[in-house]
Write a structure and sequence with these properties.
Strand order of the largest sheet: 2-1-5
Radius of gyration: 17 Å
Shape: globular
Number of strands: 5
Strand content: 5-15%
Helix content: 25-40%
Distance between the termini: 33 Å
Number of helices: 7
């Protein structure tokens, strides 16, 4: 909820600032409910994402990460975003590693990481870039789903983002990044 609140606050501030002279900003909130129910997720369930990939549920406290996967797909494929900034409070592990005063930063491109870090410095926020090592992908593969774990799904490279960004930069100059942080979920049970 903290990430969604931050995104909504940023959207409110942007709506009250000077209008953009170029580009668009899409604000996508991947909201979900985590209630105990007989139909709730169970370890071993296989979810099908908006992208058509399947993800094996290894942690039933991962519903936010699962809706985020669909939000990121939506930002890339429906909104045609050429850059995505995801603001999420999805795991306590980052707080254990960095403490409560430093945010973890993951980026597949150095230029994107530096842009976010520079914005954080200007506003007095602290961020620390975390690695996205290729060896992580091997650890997260699953014999029963196409994407393995959420992290593998989100960190897959390509899918047109870089190409859209380069094209946008050619036509409207540098900058023009779009922000994101939406949902759609289909649940299927794995046969045990």
């Amino acid at each position: 909820m903290g990430g969604a609140a931050a995104v909504l606050g940023a959207a409110d501030a942007l709506s009250k600032s000077k209008p953009l002279t170029q580009g668009r900003i899409h604000v996508i909130v991947a909201a979900c409910e985590n209630m105990v129910d007989g139909k709730g997720m169970r370890p071993g369930d296989i979810l099908t994402t908006a992208a058509g990939k399947t993800i094996e549920v290894n942690n039933t406290d991962a519903e936010g990460r699962l809706t985020l996967a669909d939000a990121l797909w939506y930002a890339q494929h429906k909104a045609k975003a050429c850059a995505v900034v995801d603001v999420a409070t999805l795991t306590g592990a980052c707080m254990v590693a960095l403490g409560s005063g430093v945010a973890g930063l993951m980026a597949s491109e150095d230029s994107a990481a530096e842009a976010v870090a520079a914005a954080a410095r200007r506003t007095g926020e602290k961020v620390w870039r975390l690695p996205l090592e290729e060896s992580y992908f091997e650890q997260l593969k699953s014999p029963v789903s196409s994407a393995g774990g959420f992290f593998l799904f989100v960190c897959e490279r390509g899918e047109g983002g870089r190409e859209r960004r380069r094209e946008a930069e050619k036509t409207r100059g540098r900058g023009g990044a779009k922000q994101s942080g939406g949902t759609k979920k289909k649940l299927t049970r794995k046969n045990h």
